[in-house]
Amino acid sequence: MSLLVVEKVDVFYKDAQALRQVSLRVEEGELVSIVGANGVGKSTLLKAISGLLHPKGGRILFSGCAIEGMAPHQIVKMGLIQIPEARRLFPFMTVQENLELGSYNHRARKGAKQMLEMVFEILPLLRERKGQLVRSLSGGEQQMLAIGRGLMARPRLLMLDEPSLGLAPLVVNELFALLARIQAEGVTILLVEQDVRRALKAADRGYVLERGEVMMEGKGQQLLDDPAIKVAYLGM
């Protein structure tokens, strides 16, 4: 059974249809990338999965349970965690306080101390900065903190929305190395990313969205090698 299944989902913003018959699946332990240009529905899809938007048609199953009508906090309790674009951290709280907020749900609260130590082990910079106000961190450090806060919720599936946006190339390298380590720790990842080359290179499988529809899907390397992808997204 797939960990996440999206079946023929339609999403509207009032009368404007943002997603049309979108289907995808994510298997346990995979890193799956969703790529495409701006405005094609990538973030809308994550919001529909996490319960921030409700589809007008189709089904979303997480671990075999239908979640398309659930509230976001109910979905979080099941272990489906989204790290939003722009991070949404609390700038006048400390690094550690932001991390601890990630374990507010009952499922994560019991093991919060152990998870905090695991996050500090994976992201030692956060241990060094744990007493600092978040507003004093660089953009790259804030992105790492957002990922750490997501891990504090003990995700079964971690969804990331444009994590490399606005980051320097060296920081992006560190980010994708971190995602590989998180996957190696057994966390399943669904990644929305405009950097098509990096996203597909990191992915076990990928989906290409255009105008709110899935136009292509396949293994990450297969999509990277596809001539249409090279022309449309890689400038080749």
Structure notes:
This protein has helices at residues 42-50, 72-77, 95-101, 106-109, 112-122, 124-128, 139-152, 169-184, 196-202, 220-225, 227-233, and strands spanning 4-13, 16-26, 31-35, 57-62, 65-66, 80-83, 157-161, 188-192, 205-210, 213-219. The radius of gyration is 17 Å and the shape is globular. The mean pLDDT is 93. It has a 6-stranded mixed sheet with strand order 6-7-8-3-9-10, with helices on both faces. The chain has a 4-stranded antiparallel sheet with strand order 2-1-4-5, with helices on one face. The chain has one domain: 3-Layer(aba) Sandwich (Rossmann fold), CATH 3.40.50.300. The chain is α/β, with parallel strands linked by helices and 236 residues long. It has 11 helices and 10 strands.
Keywords:
236 residues; alpha/beta; Rossmann fold; six-stranded mixed beta sheet; four-stranded antiparallel beta sheet; 39% helix
Number of helices: 11
How is the CATH topology named? Rossmann fold
CATH class: Alpha Beta
The mean pLDDT is: 93
Rounded Rg = 17 Å
What general form does the structure show?
globular
- Flag low-confidence runs: none
Class by alpha and beta content: alpha/beta
CATH architecture: 3-Layer(aba) Sandwich
- Taking the alpha carbons of the first and last residues, their distance comes to 38 Å
